[in-house]
């Protein structure tokens, strides 16, 4: 929940803390298959079976945090007015964050000032209750967000929407969003925020004590999305049925999807091999490697914006010296890690701006594995040897392998690292205190924009700025970016950002591993979601 008087910058940072997901196999997917090609050869199967690691914590989209099962489901069962298109990245099909298109909406366009955005709804679209989706539902949904200070209320401040009076019903099928200023982030922010509740149904369950029906929505699935929830057994299984009334492009290709809760990855692997499930959304590491050789199973691989890095605290010795940071950047065996940890299934990257993000430049990270340069950089700091702990997630086998390889090479340059695996609670507590000098991080951004990246990780007070990094020029660029909508001008700003980050080197950026997903051979149509939340409508399978 966002405090009522928090600054725009602060809310950007709050939004960023929600928007940056840590690596997980729970919700992402990817494929080399063309989603437009539909099912694989043979008749399409009517039911697809998917294993997930956990049951969702609530059905209320407005008040769910880091629950990836819930967030993935919401993308499929709530009616989102707009969504990302699909494009190619290498051999993969991925969601296209540069192409946001109407889905349940007919259109969503700005006026000449780019401050007033008009949403036009398609006529005749109905919720499962039979109620037609109208402008009043949009208005009620956003009034609820502002009144109850839901997640959306915080994120909306990034684009100059701070009060319900800025959401105006023009007629039954038209709504205006009147922003305080133009913003280049509007389409992306609305792509993650513009979902709609069945307000007529909700009002039946509102009470004086609970005017926005929070208690009812937490326990009851929404309707009107690409799929409707036809069965939900708490902690066990959820059944989705394709919404045949969906009016837009790319409707569901499979009529029924059953999601079963299988917490243990080993059990998911066994069920997949036995053909009891078609897709396993929770397998990594050795179980994944074993499945590459399993009969009847294929492991889909797709480009991902998941970024693996080492954050260095620029306020903690020895990394408060930029030359020590450069020494470590030159001592990391990048190619070796890609080969030995990811089996070559990762993309090297040359910037702290993720690959595929608009503005990415290979000049953004000029460091390669070079022990001579590492030693020279350390000598430039006036030191012959330094030491630090290197923190990583205790239950993350990939991070452990990276830590071991970095430790070995850094030692050759005079940097002694003590490996410190931490459990989630301890890691979270130390991250909150920003007390870790050196740590491995993995994560991806929901909003594919450098302004958002800065907001989450590289400006003063940013929630994920574990490096404690600040730079006056970055702060100025960040402020200027808020109202800069011209794409060419923004790209110029991002070039400056990457030049500054290259000189300051607050992070060692290692690579972007591809996302791997084990499925039965009959499964087709996976699209890699750049926000980590699978769109199940593209899935299909032969009978």
Verbal overview:
This protein has 543 residues and is of the alpha+beta class. It has 2 domains: 44-282 and 519-541, 3-Layer(aba) Sandwich (D-Maltodextrin-Binding Protein, domain 2), CATH 3.40.190.10; 306-513, Dipeptide-binding Protein, Domain 3 (Dipeptide-binding Protein, domain 3, Roll), CATH 3.10.105.10. Helix content is 31%, strand content 23%. The protein contains 17 helices and 21 strands. It has helices at residues 8-19, 68-77, 135-147, 151-156, 186-193, 199-205, 214-219, 265-274, 285-291, 322-331, 334-340, 371-380, 397-412, 424-433, 450-457, 472-481, 487-504; strands at residues 47-52, 82-89, 92-102, 105-110, 116-121, 167-171, 174-178, 227-233, 237-242, 256-261, 279-281, 297-302, 307-312, 346-348, 386-393, 415-422, 438-443, 507-513, 515-520, 523-524, 540-541. The strands form 7 sheets. A 5-stranded mixed sheet has the order 8-9-10-1-11, sandwiched between helices. It has a 4-stranded antiparallel sheet with strand order 4-5-7-6, with helices on one face. Helix 16 (472-481) runs antiparallel to helix 17 (487-504). This is Peptide/nickel transport system substrate-binding protein. One of its GO terms (molecular function) is peptide transmembrane transporter activity. It is found in: Cell envelope. Residues 100-461 form the Solute-binding protein family domain. Belongs to the bacterial solute-binding protein 5 family.
